[in-house]
Amino acid sequence: MTSSDIRKKYIEFFTDQIRKHKEIAPAPLVPENDPTTLFTSSGMQPLVPYLLGQTHPEGKRIVDSQPCFRAEDIEEVGDNRHTTFFEMLGNWSLGDYFKEDQLKWFWEFLTEEVKLPKEKLYVSIFEGDDSVPEDKESYEIWKNLGVAEDHIYKYGVKKNWWSRSGTPDKMPVGEIGGPDSEVFYDFGKELSFHEKSDWKNESCHPNCDCGRFMEIGNSVFIQYIKQADGSLKELDQKNVDFGGGLERITAASLNHPDIFQTDLYLPIIRIIEQTTSKKYEGENKSPMRVIADHIKAAAFLINDGVIPSNKLQGYILRRLLRRSATKFYQLTKDMKFLGEMLKVYHAILSIYDGLYGMEKRENSDSYLLEKNYKIIFDEMDKFSKALARGFHEIDKIEKMDGKIAFDFYQNLGFPYEVTEELFRQKGQEIDREQFKSEFEKHRELSRTASAGMFKGGLADHSEVTIKYHTATHLLHQALRDVLGESVFQKGSNITSERLRFDFSFDRKMTDEEIKETEEIINKKIEEDLKVDRMIIPIEKAREMNAIGLFNDKYAKEVSIYAIGLDFKLDSDSKDQRSRGGYYSLEFCGGPHVEHTGVIGRVKIMKEEAISSGIRRIRAQIV
User: Counting beta carbons within 10 angstroms of the beta carbon of residue 529, is it exposed (0 to 12), middle (13 to 18) or buried (19 or more)?
Assistant: First the structure.
């Protein structure tokens, strides 16, 4: 079964007259007006406000297919199932159906729609702990569906519990969470590499990571809320949050354990084989998987407006492209890969062919050459020169150790394997364990920073942070008043101490422009304008000139935050648009203050360039 077949069947299955879900548009990979995270990393992420109780405009039953990107998985790519970019099939019940319907429907989808053999499916449930009892209800449901007892496994909080903060003991007061139930596909004992598993001292089981089993879906039952006394209380409104990897379900439908052999990756792998004159087998598999995943992820990020840089999303994109170049070098021992990127890019477009805003094949040539492909080519060209510099610097070093090798890897992007090979020719063996130690330190810092941004942002709805969030809307509109309507937000990051706002503009702002922008913001704060949230049809938002990108990634109804109904324009105002009678009208999920007067005075501390055509403002409430 093809990935397109599965994607289509999944949406139709949940939107039929029995299950009656409403399909929602996927969110962009780079969240708009969301300072809490760099990327959309799960189907659940854009829906957090609704899981917390906000009413969704499409109702209580929703379904989608969401493109996702997980930066923390970059170093994991290379095996048969890990990727940075993937599609998450998702369905949600917002206070409607619960465990019985969810598990029954997903089982029906897998066994009747995808035609997976029942005997190859294993499930896991939450075994319970001191604070939450065992999920006996899910256990009985699986048994009633015909799952054999020896195919049902019980795991603790590290494997079968979900909350944004992790295990129950780490959940702050007011945090929601609950047990989950996962489904695994068994590819057979012959694929087990059990001795390499973290669970090698136990008998093989679905979570042992030995290669035999692959998780293909996870149903989370959000039924608890953390209390001030540390206990967990049952929620009045219980939610279902399901996510299933399209790549993995497709692999299971083919009974093939390698997702890179599905139609979502195989066309890219074939181009890489042609380019390198090597076959996808043996030691070539890992670098080819990295190239296929990273170039695909890069294509989607660039299509979403990301450009290579040394900060935030741009830094991750740069890492993807440089790691791809490194792997090409590993395979070919030269840097003649630039001209072949266009073929790889065409393969990616042929796979998605108009999905998720990717340009269709018949329109792709000029589009690629003028925009996206040029970004990839330029970055790869720069990196090829960095590789050349690395060779030059390496020639100066008499004695190489693991720490220096990591510095070359981190600062120049110079492949460790290449460094090791050059010095082996000199009769030197690099301390690989020292390199790994430095590498793990860096990876842990990266993961902590990434998790902290996602967790901290979502969890921190403090009064001062909400003030800063509303201030970014005033800043955005003030910049458009002063600099023109070509200004659009390109990113933001908000803490309880300051706001950071990135926007499109091609020159340094003058002191006068900065002063005028600051004065407009503070004037709107002094006017104590009312802040309203509206759920309106997207066409109405278009008519009202709301700030946002109007394309097919939005649902029929959208969330808009409006500031200052019936505000009075100054006679010399640069902005004479109606905006429906509001000063600021912008796509956003919230939260915000109820009126601007509570914000306090805003001071712009710094304005600077962060990349070509992108400026950054840092501001504080003083």
Answer: buried
